[in-house]
Amino acid sequence: MNFNDPKTRDFLEKEWQKSILKNYGNGLFLSQEEIVLLQKYNLSYQESTSMKEFMYQIENVLSYCEEEDYEELEQISTKISDFYYYNYVKK
Question: Which partner from 20, 34, 56, 59 sits 20 to 30 angstroms from 10, CA to CA?
């Protein structure tokens, strides 16, 4: 891979931008990739009043989710839970 090639740099920049966490309010930080996946399951991060409420919504969907869809949504749930723990729980 030639990192000096403008096409390669543009591609890498776009991929990097997808993974950056952005604050969507109420302590909820998500990447563009995660938002696309959450929309697939009709989970609206904008309507949640807190991170805990949103984690509950994800867990509720997971309880009805088919096995092949479970893993990708579980990964997001774990990321959000970890972020919450490391940033908001007093240790």
Answer: 34
Owner of token pair 């740099």:
9
Per-residue pLDDT averaged across 24-46, rounded? 86
3-state secondary structure of 8: helix
User: Of all helices (H) and strands (E), which one includes residue 22?
Assistant: strand 22-23
Confidence of residue 13 (pLDDT cuts 50, 70, 90): confident
Is the CB of residue 1 less than 8 Å from the CB of residue 8?
yes
Whether the per-residue pLDDT at 1 is higher than 70: the answer is: no
**pTM exceeds 0.90 for this model:** no
Give the alpha-carbon dihedral of 60, 64, 69, 75, to 10 degrees: 30
Compute the distance between CA of residue 78 and CA of residue 83 in angstroms, rounded to an integer: 8
